[in-house]
Design a protein that fits this description.
- The protein is an alpha/beta fold and 333 residues long.
- The chain has 3 domains: 130 residues, 3-Layer(aba) Sandwich (Rossmann fold); 63 residues, Helicase, Ruva Protein, domain 3 (Orthogonal Bundle); 122 residues, Zinc Finger, Delta Prime, domain 3.
- A 5-stranded parallel β-sheet has the order 2-3-4-1-7, with helices on both faces. Strands 5-6 form a two-stranded antiparallel ribbon.
- α3 links the parallel β2 and β3.
- α6 packs across α7, α10 runs parallel beside α14 and α10 packs across α16.
- It is globular.
């Protein structure tokens, strides 16, 4: 029996994109991609549109492929989950449905697709027709091998020292690493290996450093300086991107606070959260400035700001400004 539901899941978005590109390019090689390949987004797909996509018969092929991004947006709650599973149970063998779930690992388990997830349980009970492929970012030790292999895959080479320097700048973010390698290989014109001077000249450390500086100001109660840094970040990116970065940072602070409360230090933060020493030190120092309850409250506020952004119920820039002022002038414990 052919696999009807393939779940691509994890925080290694570059690998997930590579898998999807491989699937699509394989169909394009046959000249049938326009007929047998379709991409949907669960955030704006209803049951009827979903059914139309998966029930459409393949043309001159055994299966057609339907990619569904953000599939969990079609579920939610006991009734919503059951409706979604009913849809999955109806997938014909002539369709391969690929569910793409971008996830984050919260120390002991995945956030969107945890061990007790209704979707994970459903898939593991149907090994003949469903499969879960977890793509996790490599840890910092494995990242050097990942960068070296990716450079070779792209047709170039990178020196060990240059790979180490790049990891120091971007950590284990495979998406940023891919972008950096594309830029560096064009710079050396694929004529020689990328060296440390190339990385130093072309690549700048990601905005994590600026986020840390802004949060340092918040911890110090310096709202004015924090707001200046916040708006500088927004000028470089956009409000949704900066909000996502700040939310991710406070999620890491919650996790770091938990490690500290369990008696761990910088080494444990490095190991459990997959961070370089500089970042782990910063996370530990900043997490110590707040109680766990306060950090959870602040993370909840950021989730509400994100919800307001997605539903157009509030101005996200104003909400972020108010959040920064509140943190700088508010309680820590």
């Amino acid at each position: 029996m052919a696999i009807s539901v393939r779940i691509l899941h994890g925080d290694d978005e570059e690998t997930i994109r590579t898998v999807l590109r491989t699937v699509e390019s394989g169909l394009r090689a046959t000249g049938l991609a326009e007929l047998n390949f379709q991409v949907l987004d669960g955030k704006n797909t209803d049951g009827e549109a979903f059914s139309n996509a998966v029930y459409a018969p393949p043309l001159i092929a055994d299966q057609r492929v339907v990619v569904l991004n953000n599939p969990l947006a079609m579920a939610g709650g006991r009734d919503g989950n059951q409706r979604f599973l009913t849809l999955l149970n109806s997938i014909p063998e002539t369709t391969c449905l690929i569910l793409v779930i971008h996830d984050t690992y919260e120390r002991r388990d995945w956030s969107a697709l945890p061990a007790k997830s209704f979707l994970r349980k459903w898939a593991t009970e149907r090994p003949e027709s469903a499969i879960i492929e977890t793509h996790a970012r490599p840890d910092l030790n494995g990242m050097r091998g990942w960068i070296t292999a990716k450079a070779n895959e792209l047709g170039g080479q990178i020196e060990p020292g240059a790979a180490r320097l790049l990891i120091g700048m971007i950590g284990n973010d495979t998406g940023e690493a891919r972008q950096a390698l594309d830029k560096l290989l064009l710079y050396v014109d694929f004529a020689r290996p990328i060296d440390e001077s190339d990385v130093s000249e072309l690549i700048t450390a990601n905005n994590t450093v600026n986020i840390f500086a802004m949060i340092d100001d918040l911890v110090a109660g310096n709202a004015k300086s924090a707001l200046i840094k916040l708006h500088q970040l927004i000028e470089e990116q956009d409000v949704p991107g900066v909000l996502a970065m700040i939310t991710r940072q406070f999620r890491l602070l919650v996790q770091a606070r938990e490690i500290l409360d369990e008696g761990g230090g910088t080494g444990a933060i490095m190991k459990e959260l997959g961070q370089i020493e500089f970042v782990a030190n910063k996370l530990g120092n900043q997490a110590r400035a707040f109680s766990m309850n306060r950090l959870c409250d602040l993370f909840g506020e950021l989730v509400e700001i994100d919800r307001g952004l997605k539903t157009s119920q509030s101005d996200p820039l104003t909400a972020l400004d108010l959040f920064a002022v509140s943190v700088a002038s508010g309680k820590r414990k």
